[in-house]
């Protein structure tokens, strides 16, 4: 007997929830119906062509014009290659002075603090500059070598 009562009680609960379920079903149906025509329109649009991606001021290039551009680029590349072969001295890298490179590296070193000692090919130097001012060659004072007894 209890199982019958349970079934009738659950039936009453279903009847009470019926208006809510109907409203939800109607809202879902309207949403699907409203979205349906838009998705069909989007599917029927034509695929974009090359002209859609080009700026409006530049017309599409013909096959012959494209070939002419390629031939001109090849001609320029051969010209540059010939120029490099005929004048190799113009294209040699300029050797850098290692002493100048080392000096520039020291002057740009932000980790140096007053009293730091640096060693170069010219000897040992003490950094006497200030951290709030740009570095100069004069900030590096040579250390006098100690005499060995």
Strand content: 5-15%
Helical content, roughly? 40-55%
The parts where pLDDT drops under 50 for at least 5 residues are 1-7
Span from first to last CA? 118 Å
Walkthrough of the structure:
This protein is mostly helical. It has three helices and three strands, in the order αααβββ. Strands 1-2-3 form a three-stranded antiparallel beta sheet, with no helix packed on it.
Concise summary:
The chain is mainly alpha-helical and 149 residues long.
Keywords summarizing the entry:
single chain; 149 residues; mainly alpha; three-stranded antiparallel beta sheet; 3 helices; 3 strands
Topology:
Blueprint: H1 2-44, H2 63-86, H3 98-108, E1 117-120, E2 123-127, E3 140-142
Antiparallel strand pairs: 1-2, 2-3
């Amino acid at each position: 007997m209890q199982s019958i009562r349970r079934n009738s009680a659950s039936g009453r609960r279903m009847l009470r929830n019926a208006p809510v379920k109907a409203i939800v079903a109607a809202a879902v149906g309207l949403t699907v119906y409203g979205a349906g025509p838009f998705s069909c329109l989007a599917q029927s649009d034509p695929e974009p062509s090359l002209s859609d991606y080009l700026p409006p001021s530049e017309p599409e290039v013909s096959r012959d014009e494209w070939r002419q551009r390629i031939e001109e680029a090849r001609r320029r590349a051969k010209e540059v290659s010939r120029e490099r072969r005929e004048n190799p001295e113009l294209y040699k890298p300029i050797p850098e002075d290692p002493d100048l490179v080392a000096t520039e590296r020291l002057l740009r070193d932000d980790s140096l603090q007053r009293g730091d000692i640096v060693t170069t090919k010219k000897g040992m130097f003490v950094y006497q500059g200030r951290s709030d001012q740009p570095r100069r060659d004069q900030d590096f004072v040579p250390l006098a070598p100690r005499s060995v007894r």
